[in-house]
Amino acid sequence: MKRIAILYQAAVPPPIHGVIKPLKPGGYRDSGADIGYALTNVDFPLVTPVPCPDAGDEETWVFPDTACGIDRALQKGAEVLWANTTVYQGHPLEQYMDHVAIIGQDPHLVDRYEDKWLMNSWLASQGFLVPRAIRVKAGQDPALDDFADEVVVLKPVRGRGSQGVRKVQGQDQLHNEIRHWNLTLYGDALLIESYLPGEEVTVTVMPPGTYQETHGNTIRDGHWVLPPVMRSGHVRGIVPYSGVVPVRENSRVLDRWPLELDCFLRSCMDIGNQLNSRMVLRIDARADHLGQFRIVDVNFKPNLTGPGRPDRSRHTSLVTMAAEAMGWSYSQLVANLARQYWRRSE
């Protein structure tokens, strides 16, 4: 097993075409520490900033995703970098990818398709169901006749989960929201989508690879999915951000599901394959008035928090919950993800 160092997000990513992706408070240090602690429980060799990391101190487990932070991790003997951070074209990690293995997504893929407008357009072009949507400039009064007095959802073009997402009805409220959009936090553009009234589901798409399970190793030749998770507890039509309402309180893993959802799961696997996703994807969808699931988000950096460290028993993520339904502990989940490292040269 190769020695792994875990990176966290040290700074806000640069704007891309005027659009900003907000920094998560702490830069994923919490989940990075969860991952590191879990890996040590299953005897994975871990490189950390200090010789004996403290289970209660996040910063003792993770390195910043800067050139200095990565250099420090490599000097300490890291052979694999776990990019538990938001990557993009020009990210410091890129200059190391020719000779160091990584666990994470290709920065070029994320740079392009984390733009929700581009992703929505690509999905539609490939025949996947998405809500009707338009991209508009913030602070302006665009023509919105296509939506008339329809109920819509406003969201950042490069958002994070449900942060900044809100349900709006009526032209007056819609124009007011656009005029007062938070340019500092999200940049100068936003997405307007038709509101979907049906159930909400999230699907974890896993990359191909060899996975260790209770009965032995399983080779997955293509992208595959964990059991779907049904969301509930919507507030004004939107599931609250997990930092406000823990996901265990408003989510449940399904042990059986109808045929239409089974078809959607196959679509999710196809999306992972077409994108050549190298790490976990989380695809969120809602049902329209006909019961057809339409994709509302493809998340290239889903939350990977999980229990283990002191006072973290209630902290988990949708991916972790889906893995538990497979019979995996959190340590087994992160150990299996740790095996999926890759090199750009390959």
Descriptive key words:
alpha+beta; 9 helices; 22% strand; 6-stranded antiparallel β-sheet; Dna Ligase, domain 1; 3 domains; D-amino Acid Aminotransferase, Chain A, domain 1; 346 residues; 5-stranded parallel β-sheet
What's the helix and strand layout?
Blueprint: E1 4-8, H1 29-41, E2 46-47, E3 62-64, H2 67-75, E4 80-83, E5 101-103, H3 107-113, H4 116-125, E6 133-137, E7 151-156, E8 166-169, H5 171-179, H6 183-186, E9 189-194, E10 200-206, E11 209-213, E12 216-220, E13 224-225, E14 229-231, E15 251-253, H7 259-275, E16 281-287, E17 293-299, H8 318-325, H9 330-338
What count of structural domains? 3
Number of helices: 9
Fraction in helix:
10-25%
How widely separated are the two ends? 19 Å
Second CATH tier, the architecture of the largest domain: 2-Layer Sandwich
Which structural class do the helices and strands define? alpha+beta
The named CATH superfamily of the largest domain: ATP-grasp fold, B domain
| Helix-strand sequence | EHEEHEEHHEEEHHEEEEEEEHEEHH
Low-confidence stretches: none
CATH class assignment of the largest domain: Alpha Beta
CATH topology of the largest domain: D-amino Acid Aminotransferase, Chain A, domain 1
- The total count of strands amounts to 17
Global morphology: globular
